[in-house]
Specification:
The complex is a heterodimer of chains A (about 325) and B (about 290). Chain A is an all-alpha fold and about 325 residues long. Helix content of chain A is about 70%, strand content about 0%. The two termini of chain B are about 40 Å apart. The chains are: A mainly alpha (about 325), B mainly alpha (about 290).
Chain lengths: ~325, ~290
């Protein structure tokens, strides 16, 4: 790095004398070198810890690797389509993909709708607004392990407060095991997702709302537009690009999500998403090849979805 | 009354109602966490619906148990706190050391591949971490880095780098170039300019990024689970809590105390710096 960083305080004019063997660097080239030098550590870390592993996952997906045989397998062992084939034909794969899709769509829509409502209600100043706004961000900043644990306890059939009051006030016949029965587990996980990530949408939408010029709404009001009409015809069109962008971001992030589902249900009761399945292959079955193949399938499916999305909404996002 | 007046009045009330509902929904789980953590388990089993703690039943024994070392019959959370703190601070500092020059370069200097760097970070940011986890798991197993906090720090740096560089870059771009140029005319070199002009000006943004990095590292779960699960003395708070919650031996109230211990530092940091952080996170949003 020391070779490329330009010396301090040297101006190009001072380097002119004496016919130089090498031509002195122009300012432009020095800038370029400095830029590369400064960005090099970032690139190195990113390539070493993220770039290479991604490539390697793809390689592993086409190899027969188990944790036990790991030491014997080289980077370029024999390649096989076995893993991909096995993954695609294992029972439950299609279900997992379907569940992941429902979960991602539900979580995305839920969090954006909640975030939009939240942004609309705290848009105008009122007393205690700062505190309200900060409180609304709590689910997003709090540690995932802590909030999933609290949800588990709240929804617990024996000592959970939800079932206690549900039976007392809402007249439920029996406690509902929200997270362990097929009929409610996925919906509960989606509700958690919406609860935990609506602050993300809220932040972006609020920032955009505050950038909408006041005159626009004022003019609409003078023309006799009611509040709902102003929302429909003035605010919503202004927000659509952000909503479209949030749609992609949240969908991708939810699709990749591991922690939330793993911590809430462990993937049982019909909530097994692809990431959790990959984790199970990796640790419980120590079948690295299959895990990698699964992960590659996950990434490919994700890329396809995003491309489809961009095809339809690309202009709005851009 | 015409439609406008009806809507205005009803929406005003609806708005208050919605704000109240949002407040309850977001804050209640944290309140519930706090309440359970100071109730004895027997009282909880008798009356799971209570929302306030009676003076008679208030206890801090749960905290004592969760913090005490395992040798003394506790759950050893003090060790976990030390591990988490160590990892989070190291990851934050190292991320900044790497990200600041990188962000400066992307914001200010024209170099080959500068445009691609942006795209690269976005792609990295959105790529499934489980895909990265597999080979890292393999490599760390081979290199004997599994079970080492250093390996974890390395992973956390890579996880926080994209957003850190992005946020810092946005901020550097708002600093007028003329300031740096006048420093250059006064004879300062590139590094001198960064150190004496750009860094002090970017301090608010750097603080925001540091807080963000710390929170991500403190809260992280997947990689801690993959790398540290066999070594209880290396567990982070998140990992320790989740693994203990899987079993049935530890009372829920004690674990709630653990949740409070895990959440409190983040909540304090967050409320102390809320403005800084939200502005930092969305500073690039207006453009989109």
């Amino acid at each position: 790095m020391t070779t490329t960083a330009p010396g301090p305080g040297r101006s190009p004019t001072r380097e002119r004398p004496a016919p130089p063997r090498r031509r002195p660097l122009t300012l432009r080239r020095r800038e370029s070198r400095a830029g590369l030098a400064l960005v090099a550590p970032t690139l190195l870390v990113t390539i070493a810890v993220i770039g290479i592993p991604i490539v390697w996952t793809v390689v592993l997906a086409f190899q027969r690797v188990r944790l036990a045989t790991l030491r014997k397998t080289g980077l370029f062992g024999e390649f096989t389509m076995d893993n991909i084939d096995r993954v695609l034909h294992t029972p439950g794969f299609a279900d997992t993909l379907w569940v992941t899709l429902i979960y991602s769509l539900g979580g995305t829509v839920g969090s954006i709708v909640l975030g939009l409502v939240a942004a609309l209600v705290v848009r105008r100043p009122f007393r205690g607004r700062t505190l309200v706004r900060a409180s609304m961000l709590l689910p997003y900043v709090a540690p995932v392990v802590a909030v999933t644990f609290v949800w588990q306890v709240m929804l617990d059939p024996q000592l959970g407060i939800v079932n206690h009051w549900g039976q007392r006030l809402l007249g439920w016949d029996a406690p509902v095991p929200f997270l362990s029965q097929e009929s409610t587990a996925l919906a509960t996980v989606i509700a958690f997702e919406a609860w935990r990530y609506f602050p993300f949408a809220f932040l972006f939408l609020l920032a955009r709302l505050q950038a909408v010029p006041g005159e626009l709404e004022e003019a609409a009001r003078v023309d006799g537009a009611t509040p709902t009409q102003r929302f429909r015809h003035i605010l919503l069109p202004q927000l659509l690009p952000v909503i479209a962008l949030l749609g992609v971001l949240r969908f991708i992030m939810t699709f990749n999500k591991f922690d939330d589902v793993y911590l809430l249900t462990g993937g049982s009761a019909g909530t097994e998403v692809v990431s959790v399945r990959v984790y199970d292959f990796l640790t419980a079955r120590t079948d690295i090849g299959a895990a990698a193949a699964q992960a590659v399938v996950l990434a490919v499916v994700l890329i396809v979805f995003v491309l489809i999305y961009l095809r339809f909404f690309g202009r709005r996002v851009g | 009354m015409d439609r406008d007046a009806v809507e205005t009045v009803s929406l005003r009330w609806l708005r208050r109602l919605v704000i109240a509902v949002f407040l309850v929904v977001t804050v209640f789980p944290f309140y519930y966490m706090l309440v359970l953590s100071v109730r004895p388990i027997e009282r909880l089993l008798l009356d799971p619906g209570a929302l306030v703690v009676g003076f008679g039943e208030l206890t801090v024994a749960t905290y004592a148990e969760v913090l005490k070392a395992t040798a003394d019959g506790g759950q050893g959370f003090l060790t976990f706190i030390r591990n988490s703190g160590l990892v989070a601070v190291a990851a934050t500092v190292l991320t900044l050391v790497v990200a600041i020059p990188g962000a400066y370069a992307v914001a200010r200097l024209r170099f080959f591949g500068r445009r691609q760097v942006d795209f690269l970070f976005l792609a990295v940011y959105l790529f499934p971490s489980i895909v990265i986890a597999i080979p890292l798991f393999v490599v760390f197993t081979r290199a004997g880095l599994r079970g080492s906090l250093f390996g974890l720090v390395l992973v956390y740096i890579s996880q926080t780098l994209p957003v850190s560089v992005y946020m810092l870059k946005n901020y550097f771009e708002t600093i007028p170039v003329s300031l740096e140029e006048s420093a250059a005319i006064d004879g300062a070199g590139r590094l001198g300019i960064i150190r004496r002009v750009s860094l002090p000006l970017a301090m608010p943004s750097i603080m925001a990024v540091a807080l963000y990095d710390f929170m991500i590292a403190w809260n992280e779960f997947l990689f801690a689970l993959l790398f540290l699960v066999d070594k209880p003395d290396r567990w982070t708070v998140s990992l320790g809590l989740s693994l203990l919650a899987d079993g049935v031996e530890v009372p829920k109230t004690v674990l709630m105390a653990g949740s409070v211990v895990l959440t409190l530092p983040i909540v304090i940091l967050f409320f102390a710096s809320e403005r800084l952080l939200t502005e930092g996170l969305t500073s690039g949003a207006e453009k989109g």
